Amino acid sequence: MATDIEEPTLTVDELAARAGVTVRTVRFYGTKGLLPPPVIGPRRVGHYSQEHLSRLALIEELQHQGMTLAAIERYVQQLPEGLSAHDLAIHRAVVASWAPDSAEDMNRAELERRAGRPLSEGDVDRLVAMSVVRVARADRAYRADGGVKEAGVPDSYRVDLGLLRLGVQLLDVPIAHETILAARTVLLEHTRAAAHELSLLFRDEVSERTSVAAVKDLSADMQPLVVQALLTTFQRSLKEELREWLTEES
What we know:
Blueprint: H1 12-19, H2 23-31, E1 39-40, E2 46-47, H3 50-64, H4 69-77, H5 85-97, E3 103-106, H6 108-115, H7 121-129, E4 133-137, E5 154-160, H8 161-170, H9 177-203, H10 212-249
Antiparallel strand pairs: 1-2, 3-5, 4-5
Helix pairs in contact: 1-2, 3-5, 5-10
């Protein structure tokens, strides 16, 4: 696995703000060995990289799964050495896929706090296109304080917490809004078709006398394996497509 080439540029305060945790939490995780030590620069200031941010996101997801700190320590210790931020993001995606859908309603200020950065209207539109955010539009003529509410101003945002961090990272990728919508359609169509075909295969392994509980147990056992397999095969297929594309261009 490739290591990050991005230079550590985040201070501990900036890292904590982008991760949505406190500086004390960052330092605590460091003492527990959950985070690599920062690179010490001039004036003895520690600097952190995207890898640290990705590790914090992974730890947060493991906590959402109900894992204790001791269990998280064991999980992190078992990770291969030299994982890049991209590799850690894949690990987090696999962990998040085991969890039920999690979404919260929040206002714009809270959304930006969770995102770790200010969000323009264009940013919000892109997050909506990626199904990270759903906007609840105002349907009242006046605010609670009696002032006129501007037409179309959102009252709140329904945010998929499992996708928010990934969606925010994709905001800096130079991809057109229309392309994101088209890519989402392609992924939904093909993943739904794959899920349907796999469910038919699994049904053949379950007899009519199998209890509902047994079926749920089978699903729980197979889901992480299937997700990991999909991620691996997709990565390999994408690399092959890019290789062929670059060959044609050259």
